[in-house]
C-alpha cells in the first residue's frame, strides 16, 4: 500500500496543473492578508469589523481554489485521452493494468490527496494566521488550536469533496465550475441559506461553522456537529464514487 | 474489423476542377468489390481515368500535381529537426519516404500540409503552398496519425462537417465510409473506434474530396493483413490513375513492393533520393540499402 | 460560406455543448426561483433580483466557450483536420467566433428571458443577452490560446469569481476594467467587456496564425 501511495503521489506531483493548484492554494490567502492590511487596519479602527476573532480565518476561503483543483485533477487526469491513435484509451487503462484492485487504488489515491492537501493546508493556515497576528495582533486574539485544526480539516474535506464529485461525474469541468463559483466571495450555498434553512446543512456551509464564529448563518451549528455534517457528506459522496468506480467499465 | 458479407460495388465519380487553370479532370475512383469469405472487404480496387477532351496533353497537366519541397529547415524547441530538406514527388508514381523514427518524416509532411511553419524553404503542391489552396481537400488528401476526429463525435458527423468545409455534398461522407468499410460504424462515436478503425476513418477523410495528391504518414500502421493488402493495391492503383502519392513508412518490405521513387531521410537530412532501383543500388534489398545508408551509432538499434 | 457551415455543424454535433447549455439554463431557472423565493420570504438577496442570477450563470457561458474551443485540441487531434480542410487561419478564426456567437445568442436569450420575474424591466434584456454571448466568445478565445479545458476554466473562473470580486472590493475604479462588471451593473462595464473579448479574440487569432498546429 505504501508503494501504491508513493506512486499516486508521484503521479499527482508530476501534473503541471497540480502545481498551479499547490501554488494558488498556498499563496493566495497570505497574499490577500498582506494586500488588505491597510484596509483591515482602517476597518478595525473605525469599528466596522464585526468580530476580529475571525480575522485571518475568513481569508483562508480565498485559497480554496487550490484543494479544489487538486481534488479534481487526481481523477480527471486519469480520464484524459492518451493520444490520437486510440482515442478510447485513457491513462486509467494503464493505471488499472498496474493496479487492478480498484478499491486499493482508490484508497491509495485518496491517501495521497489527503497528504498533499493537509500539508498545503497547514502551510497556508500557518502563514495566514501568523501574518494576521503580525499585522493586526493587537486587535485580533490568536485563534485557539482547535479552530486551526478545524480549518485544516475543512480544507482537506473540500479537496475530498471535489475528488468525490469528479469520481462520480468522470469529468473535471462540472465539479470545478460548481466548487469554484461556490468558493467565491458570495457563494451560491450561502445564498441558498436565505431561501431555505436546509441549505445550512450543505457541506461547505456547515463545514465553515467549524471554525468561523460569526457569519450570520440562519441555523447555528456547533463546531463539532458542523464537522460531522461535512464529513458525512464527503463520506457519502466518496462511497457513491467508489461504488461507481468499481462497477463501471473503464 | 468486421467483415461484411454482402457484395457491394461502389463506383464514385468525382470531378476535381482546377479553377485557376480552367481545365478539368474526371476521375472514376475506386470500384470496390466486397466479397464474402476469407478475402474480407478489401479486394480488387479497379480504377479508371477519363480525361476531358479539351485537355492539352497529359504530361503537362500531370506536372501540375507535383509536390516540390526545397531547402526546408525546421527548428522545434531549440533543436533543429530538418536540415535543408529537398525532394519531389511526381504524379503517376508512388514516392516512398523512408527513415528511422525521429528522422523528420512527419515534420516534413506537416510542413508540406501547412500545419507547421518552416524556418526556411518552401513546400509546394502544384506550385502553391498548402495554405493558399482553395478547397484544399479536393487537391490533397492527407492521412496522418489517428483519425483526426473528436472522440465524442460520430464518424458520420465528423465526415459531414469536413465535407461541408470544402463544399462537398453530404453524400460523399457515406460514399467514403463505404469505400473504407466503415458503413456499419457510421453512427459510432470516434472515441469507441479501435486503432484500425481510426486509421480507416482518417483515410476516409482524406478521400472525401477525391484528391489528385495523396500524402500518407505510415498508412498501414494499425491495419490488419487484409487492410495492408488493400492499402497496397489502393496506392498502386492511385498512382496508375495519375495521382501523386507520397507515402512515409518504415516498413521496407511494403515500400519495396509499391514505391517507384524513394527518399531516405535520417536525422533531419535527406540521405538519398531517386528511383527505387537506384536507391537499392548494389544491395540485395531496400532494407539492406537503408541500413547501410543510415548506419546507426554503435550499439543502439534505436 | 463553406467554413461557416462546417463550423456550425461542428458545434451542433458536439454533445458536451448541448449538455452545458441545458445545465446552464436549468441552473439559471433554479437561481431565479431561489431569488424569487428569498424575496417572498422577506429576505431579498440583492438589489436587482432579476439580474443577479446572471452573475452566476455567466460561468456556464464561459464553460460553453471553453468547451467549444478546447474541443479542437483535446480528445483527438481535430485541429489538424480543421487546418487541413480550412488552411487560411485568420478567416477561420473570424468565422469560428461568428458562428459561436450565432449559436450562443438563442441560448443567452432564453436564459435572460427566464431570469426575469414577471413584470421586470425588460430594457436590459438585449444588453444582457449580448453580454452573455460576448462572455462565451471570451471563454473560447482563452481556451484556444491555452488549448486545454481545465486550465482555461480555472483561469477564467478564478478571474471572474475570485480575483474580480476581491479587486472590486478594494478599489471602486478597478470595476470599470473588469470584464464582468456589466453583469452586476449594466450601466457600466460594457466597454470593459467588449474590450476584453476583442483583445482575447485577437490574441487567439494571432496565436492560431503563428503557431504550429
Key terms:
heterotrimer, A: mainly alpha, 69% helix, 0% strand, globular, B: 302 residues, alpha/beta, 6-stranded mixed beta sheet, 29% strand
Describe this structure in words.
The complex is a heterotrimer of chains A (250), B (302) and C (213). Chain A is mainly alpha-helical. Chain A is 69% helix and 0% strand. Chain A has one domain. Chain A is globular, with a radius of gyration of 19 Å. Chain B is α/β, with parallel strands linked by helices and 302 residues long. Chain B is built from 9 helices and 12 strands. In chain B, α3 packs across α4. Chain B is globular, with a radius of gyration of 19 Å. Chain C has 213 residues and is an all-alpha fold. Chain C has one domain. Chain C is globular. The model of chain C has no long low-confidence stretch (mean pLDDT 85). Chains in contact: A-B, A-C, B-C. Chains A and B meet through loops of A and loops of B.
Structural class label of chain B: alpha/beta
Strand tally of chain A is: 0
Please, what is the average pLDDT of chain B?
A: 78
Ends apart, CA distance between termini of chain A: 22 Å
User: What is the CA-atom radius of gyration of chain A, in angstroms?
Assistant: 19 Å
| Strand-pairing-aware structural class of chain A | mainly alpha
Query: Share of helix among residues of chain B?
Result: 25-40%
Which ranges of chain A are low-confidence, i.e. pLDDT below 50, for 5 or more consecutive residues? none
Largest interface: B-C, 38 and 29 residues
Beta-strand percentage of chain A? under 5%
Compute the average pLDDT of chain A: 83
What share of residues of chain A is helical?
55-70%
SSE topology string of chain B? EEEHEEEHEEHHHEHEHEEHH
Characterize the quaternary organization of these chains: heterotrimer
- Which runs of chain B of at least 5 residues are low in confidence (pLDDT < 50)? 1-60
Overall shape of chain A? globular
Largest beta sheet of chain A, briefly? none
Number of helices of chain A: 10
Count of helical segments of chain B? 9
| Terminal CA distance of chain B | 31 Å
Task: Briefly characterize the structure.
The complex is a heterotrimer of chains A (250), B (302) and C (213). By secondary structure, chain B is α/β, with parallel strands linked by helices.
How are the SSEs ordered, and which strands pair?
The complex is a heterotrimer of chains A (250), B (302) and C (213).
Chain A lengths: L1 H12 L2 H31 L18 H12 L14 H8 L3 H35 L8 H25 L3 H10 L5 H8 L7 H6 L14 H25 L3
Helix pairs in contact in A: 1-5, 2-3, 2-5, 3-5, 3-6, 3-7, 5-6, 6-7, 6-10
Chain B lengths: L8 E10 L4 E11 L11 E7 L6 H5 L4 E10 L2 E11 L4 E5 L6 H8 L7 E6 L14 E4 L11 H11 L4 H10 L15 H13 L5 E5 L7 H16 L3 E6 L2 H7 L2 E6 L2 E7 H5 L5 H8 L9
Helix pairs in contact in B: 3-4, 4-5
Chain C lengths: L1 H11 L2 H26 L11 H19 L7 H8 L3 H27 L9 H22 L2 H22 L10 H4 L5 H21 L3
Amino acid at each position: 500500500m505504501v508503494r501504491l501511495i508513493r506512486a499516486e503521489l508521484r503521479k499527482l506531483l508530476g501534473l503541471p496543473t497540480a502545481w498551479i493548484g499547490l501554488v494558488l492554494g498556498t499563496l493566495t490567502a497570505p497574499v490577500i492578508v498582506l494586500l488588505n492590511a491597510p484596509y483591515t487596519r482602517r476597518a478595525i479602527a473605525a469599528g466596522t469589523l464585526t468580530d476580529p476573532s475571525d480575522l485571518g480565518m475568513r481569508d483562508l476561503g480565498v485559497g480554496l481554489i487550490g484543494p479544489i483543483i487538486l481534488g479534481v485533477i487526481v481523477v480527471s487526469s486519469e480520464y484524459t485521452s492518451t493520444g490520437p491513435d486510440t482515442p478510447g484509451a485513457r491513462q486509467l487503462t494503464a493505471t488499472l493494468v498496474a493496479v487492478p484492485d480498484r478499491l486499493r487504488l482508490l484508497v491509495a489515491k485518496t491517501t495521497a490527496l489527503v497528504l498533499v492537501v493537509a500539508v498545503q493546508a497547514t502551510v497556508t493556515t500557518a502563514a495566514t494566521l501568523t501574518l494576521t497576528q503580525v499585522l493586526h495582533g493587537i486587535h485580533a486574539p490568536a485563534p485557539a488550536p482547535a479552530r486551526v485544526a478545524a480549518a485544516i480539516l475543512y480544507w482537506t474535506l473540500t479537496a475530498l469533496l471535489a475528488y468525490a464529485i469528479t469520481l462520480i461525474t468522470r469529468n473535471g469541468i462540472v465539479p470545478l465550475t460548481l466548487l469554484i463559483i461556490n468558493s467565491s466571495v458570495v457563494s451560491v450555498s450561502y445564498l441558498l441559506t436565505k431561501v431555505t434553512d436546509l441549505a445550512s446543512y450543505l457541506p461547505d456551509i456547515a463545514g465553515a461553522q467549524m471554525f468561523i464564529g460569526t457569519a450570520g448563518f440562519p441555523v447555528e451549528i456547533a463546531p463539532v456537529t458542523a464537522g460531522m455534517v461535512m464529513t458525512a457528506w464527503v463520506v457519502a459522496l466518496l462511497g457513491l464514487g467508489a461504488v461507481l468506480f468499481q462497477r463501471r467499465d473503464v | 474489423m468486421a467483415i461484411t458479407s454482402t457484395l457491394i460495388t461502389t463506383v464514385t465519380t468525382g470531378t476535381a476542377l482546377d479553377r485557376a487553370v480552367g481545365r478539368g479532370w474526371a476521375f472514376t475512383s475506386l470500384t470496390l468489390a466486397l466479397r464474402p469469405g476469407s478475402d474480407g472487404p478489401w479486394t480488387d480496387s479497379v480504377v479508371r481515368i477519363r480525361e476531358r477532351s479539351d485537355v492539352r496533353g497529359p504530361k503537362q497537366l500531370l506536372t501540375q500535381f507535383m509536390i516540390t519541397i526545397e531547402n526546408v529547415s525546421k527548428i522545434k524547441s531549440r533543436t533543429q529537426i530538418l536540415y535543408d530538406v529537398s525532394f519531389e514527388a511526381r504524379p503517376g508514381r508512388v514516392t516512398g519516404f523512408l527513415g528511422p523514427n525521429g528522422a523528420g518524416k512527419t515534420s516534413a509532411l506537416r510542413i508540406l500540409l501547412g500545419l507547421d511553419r518552416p524556418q526556411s524553404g518552401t513546400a509546394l503542391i502544384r506550385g502553391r503552398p498548402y495554405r493558399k489552396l482553395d478547397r484544399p481537400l479536393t487537391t490533397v488528401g492527407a492521412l496522418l496519425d489517428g483519425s483526426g476526429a473528436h472522440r465524442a463525435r460520430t464518424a458520420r458527423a465528423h465526415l459531414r462537417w469536413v465535407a461541408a468545409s470544402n463544399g462537398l455534398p453530404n453524400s460523399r461522407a457515406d460514399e467514403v465510409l463505404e469505400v473504407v468499410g466503415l458503413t456499419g460504424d457510421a453512427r459510432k462515436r470516434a472515441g469507441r473506434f479501435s486503432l484500425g478503425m481510426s486509421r480507416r476513418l482518417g483515410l476516409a477523410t482524406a478521400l472525401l474530396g477525391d484528391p489528385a495528391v495523396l500524402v500518407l504518414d505510415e498508412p498501414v500502421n494499425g491495419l490488419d493483413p487484409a487492410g495492408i493488402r488493400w492499402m497496397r493495391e489502393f496506392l498502386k492503383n492511385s498512382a496508375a490513375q495519375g495521382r501523386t502519392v507520397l507515402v512515409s513508412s518504415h516498413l521496407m518490405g511494403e515500400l519495396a513492393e509499391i514505391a517507384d521513387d524513394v527518399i531516405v531521410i535520417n536525422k533531419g537530412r535527406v540521405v538519398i533520393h531517386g528511383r527505387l532501383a537506384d536507391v537499392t543500388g548494389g544491395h540485395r534489398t531496400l532494407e539492406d540499402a537503408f541500413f547501410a545508408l543510415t548506419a546507426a551509432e554503435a550499439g543502439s538499434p534505436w | 460560406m463553406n467554413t461557416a457551415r462546417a463550423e456550425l455543424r461542428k458545434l451542433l454535433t458536439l454533445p458536451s455543448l448541448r449538455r452545458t447549455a441545458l445545465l446552464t439554463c436549468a441552473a439559471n431557472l433554479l437561481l431565479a426561483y431561489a431569488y424569487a423565493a428569498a424575496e417572498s420570504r422577506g429576505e431579498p438577496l440583492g438589489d436587482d433580483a432579476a439580474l443577479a442570477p446572471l452573475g452566476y450563470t455567466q460561468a456556464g457561458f464561459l464553460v460553453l466557450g471553453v468547451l467549444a474551443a478546447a474541443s479542437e485540441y483535446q480528445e483527438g487531434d481535430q485541429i489538424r483536420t480543421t487546418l487541413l480542410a480550412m488552411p487560411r487561419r485568420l478567416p477561420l478564426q473570424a468565422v469560428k467566433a461568428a458562428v459561436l456567437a450565432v449559436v450562443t445568442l438563442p441560448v443567452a436569450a432564453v436564459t435572460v428571458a427566464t431570469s426575469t420575474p414577471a413584470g421586470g424591466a425588460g430594457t436590459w434584456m438585449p444588453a444582457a443577452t449580448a453580454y452573455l454571448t460576448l462572455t462565451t466568445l471570451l471563454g473560447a478565445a482563452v481556451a484556444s490560446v491555452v488549448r486545454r479545458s481545465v486550465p482555461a476554466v480555472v483561469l477564467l473562473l478564478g478571474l471572474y469569481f475570485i480575483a474580480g470580486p476581491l479587486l472590486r472590493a478594494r478599489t471602486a475604479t478597478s470595476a470599470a476594467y473588469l470584464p464582468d462588471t456589466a453583469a452586476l451593473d449594466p450601466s457600466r462595464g460594457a466597454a470593459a467587456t467588449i474590450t476584453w473579448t476583442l483583445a482575447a479574440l485577437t490574441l487567439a487569432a494571432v496565436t492560431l496564425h503563428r503557431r504550429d498546429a
